Structure formats: C-alpha cells, structure tokens
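Quick illustration, no need to memorize.
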Amino acid sequence: MSREIIAILRGVTPDEVLEIGETLVAAGIDRIEVPLNSPEPFKSIGILAEGLKGRATIGAGTVLTPEQVDELKSVGGTLVVSPDCNPAVIGRSKELGMLSFPGVTSPTECFTALRHGADGLKFFPGFLVGAKGLAAISAVLPKGTKTYAVGGAGPENFGEWFDAGVTGFGIGSALYKPGMTADEVGEKARAIVAAYDAGQPA
C-alpha cells in the first residue's frame, strides 16, 4: 500500500541517507524528498534512487530552477517539490517525465500550477491556509486534483485535514531532524503511518 505521505529529509547527509530511507520504506512511507538546502543533496538523492529503486519514489524539495530539475533527473530523481509556483520549474519537470508538486497558497497559484501540468498541489505553509481554507479552495478545483498539506500538518490533526478533503501530507521535522538515528526516524514513521491509516475517511 502506497500512502500519500512524502517524507522530507531536510538536513540529511549522504552517509546516513540510505539507512534512513530503508527505515522509512519498512515503516510504510515510500515517497522521499531531500530538500536542496541539505548538505550534498544530489549525492543523497542519487544514493536513495539507486538503493531504493523499484521500492520508493525519490526526489528533491526546495527546487527553484529548471537547472535544478535537470540535475535531479541526472541522479535518478523523479519527484520535484517546490515551495513556490514556478511555471518554468513545472514545465521542465513535465518535459522530463517527472512528477511536479509546486507550493501554493491561493486559488490563483493553484490554477496556474495546474495549467502548467502540476501533478499535485503542495499547500505550504499548511497552517497558513488551514484545513478550512483548503476545503474552500478545493471546492473550485478540478475533480481529482491531488492536494498535500505541508507545514502544520501532523498525526495530531490528520483527521481534520482528511475531513477537509486533503489527499496527503508532506512531513518534515515531525519525522526527521538532523542528528536523529534511523531507529528514531523509524519510530516516528510508524506512529505517523498509524495515525494516517486511522484518520483516512472510510
């Protein structure tokens, strides 16, 4: 079962990334992004893409330019996550056959992203939009649009977001912070998966 959870490993290093990635997959999370403001991010992404091939979708977060999309593609990443809605980044991602999840907070950004081919919308920061804001915006989005809450969404409020119609979540510091061991990440991942499964609408 592939859950709509994207693990955000901000600050992860190449020497630890594969063990943490293996732990996440074992816990039931098979979508992983390494933000580009992490140490040697493309090296870490390449290690994950090779080590978890066929078992997980791997990509980058904080992708701001088409050139970064190209570099991500060259190391085997397939998932492009951005904090903003940049048509050039979305367009390049789709040209290369990659998944595009741009950051949005308004209906204008949502429709701009969708018109340029975005695969899903990352509501960031989630706490700024809130579950009620997401519900209101979702009412005008095309049926089937995938929406993800990132920043302010976690196990304690998954149910509230699901009630608002969210598709899934990006989870960062609630799952991983620099210095955590793979065991610690695994413990948090299992708790997040359990809360996600329990909170899903019937």
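The CA atoms of residues 59 and 79 lie 4 Å apart.
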